Amino acid sequence: MSINLALILTLLTLVSGVVVAMDTLVWKTAEQDSRTSPTLILTLVEYSRSFFPVLIFVLVIRSFIFEPFRIPSGSMKPTLVVGDFIFVKKFSYGLRLPVTETKIIETGQPARGDVVVFRLPSDPSINYIKRVVGLPGDTVSLERQRLTINGEVVDLRANGEIFEQVPIYIEDLDGRIHQTLIHDPGRSKQDGVYRVPEGQYFVMGDNRDHSKDSRYIGAIPEKYLVGEAVRVWMHFVPWEMPDWGRIGTKIE
Prior knowledge:
252 residues, alpha+beta, Umud Fragment, subunit A, four-stranded antiparallel sheet, 16 strands
């Protein structure tokens, strides 16, 4: 059972706000003798006045500016690894209301190469993180680990480095230079030609042979986008020392 943190935070903010408003307009506990006022109401008002400013601040930050996420899998290695805690910029692709995710202000669209967090269309309670490869209307082809987008082969070259015994390759997506892991340069999973529908985005993991992405789940409709992943703010795996060197890393 998944927990909808946005819904819980919104409800707590709403309830505490209503209590503060009721006290200001109706109960007026500040003007009453605390010895004669109902204890339950006094306690409720006291807690609401204390928590409402904090709750509304967190709700605004989390809903419209930045939201933290933890990387749960290795599908984005070597860019992101299990245990990375990242900031996601919520306003990159539009301002959306909490809970309903209704877009209220248009602020931009994903660019090729962006690392994005999105809600899984088949189960919106689950968040995925991948890299945008294909934009609406694009034709994306994958053959033997080489991407071709709209007839142009994407630049891919080995850099001579190894990550967890797997060669690292450098890929250039419209000037967005990033690293990928390729386990077998002569063969790739789910080779084929993919046409990206209008209003949707074709996404892939940087760990190309170990990523459940648009090759399997299809292109991602714009309405499921959460935001752009921009920074690593902590790296922690239970029973291991934190990797301080990853703190502040910009996500390329």
